[in-house]
Amino acid sequence: MRIIKLISAITFIFCFALLLSSNSIGKVSDKTKSDDTTANASCKDTFFCTGSEMENFDFRSQSSSFELTPGDSMVCTVILYSKQDFRIMVCGDQGYSSVNFKISEPNRETLQKVNKINESEEIIYKLDEYGEPVLGSDDKPVVLSKDVLRDTIWDKSVLLHETILFEGTSNGKNFFDIPKNEKTRRINIIVYTTGAKSTSPSCVSIMVGRRYNKPFQISAQ
Q1: Distance (Å, whole) CA 194 – CA 192
Q2: Residue 192 belongs to a domain with what CATH number?
Q3: Lower Cβ count inside 10 Å, N or C end of the chain?
Q4: What pLDDT, on the 0 to 100 scale, is given for residue 23?
Q5: What contacts 85, CB < 8 A, 6 or more positions away?
Q6: Shared domain check, 127 and 172
Q7: 3-state secondary structure string, 86-125?
């Protein structure tokens, strides 16, 4: 019996929550801690994205769910490996009226400007057979050439900016396709909730899928 082993590049997702709600600051009761632990455990193993939008993409080992209090936001960094097509989906449970998100690509631009230019003079003298300078009629060393050496000192700075690739919502189009690129890319996913139905934490799924390249990969899922 032939077993086909699928090896897929794992997309690493690093996330941190930006707690924007003032209610999240302060003493947390034991009951709240217990509820949060239960919610986190439930979120970890639950994904809320379903439907035909998931077809032809492999979301295994590339997706995560997180607990997010209504009114808070989260920023995730995703590594997309080269020469692969990806689909990014964001979904939430019924605890939110909607889950909004942005997909952006950070860029680094190096800027440099001249700080100062140091100049020095290099003089080449005529030497005799013993390596000593030859003196002229004025008893001064005979100069063969003079060169001015310039050393430029640069000031460098790095400008960071982001390009918005897509803005979506769980109530509308909740996925975005990123075509294959020759280089590995890093993108950010910013998730934020508005119009919450409750103040209790709920779950958000961020799913990153890699398009199947061969027919047997789909049948083997």
Answers
A1: 7
A2: 2.60.120.380
A3: N
A4: 37
A5: 177, 178, 179, 180, 210, 211
A6: no
A7: EEEEEEECCCCCEEEEEEEEEEEEEEEEEEEEEEEEEEEE
List the helix and strand counts (H, then E) for the chain. 2, 10
| Number of separate domains in the chain | 2
Residues 6+ apart with CB under 8 A from 198: 70, 95
HSE-up (13 A, CA, CB side) for residue 29: 4
> pLDDT (tens digit, 9 = 90+) per residue, 5-47?
333 344 444 454 443 333 333 333 343 344 444 445 567 777 7
Is 94 within the bounds of a domain? Answer: yes
pTM over 0.70: no
Q: What values do phi and psi take at 22, rounded to 5? A: -70, -20
Q: Are residues 145 and 169 in the same domain?
A: no
Residues 125 and 143 sit within 8 Å (Cβ to Cβ): yes
139 is in which domain, residue-wise? Answer: 112-155
CA atoms within 13 A on the CB side of 170: 25
What's the helix, strand, coil split of the chain in %, to 5?
A: 10, 50, 40
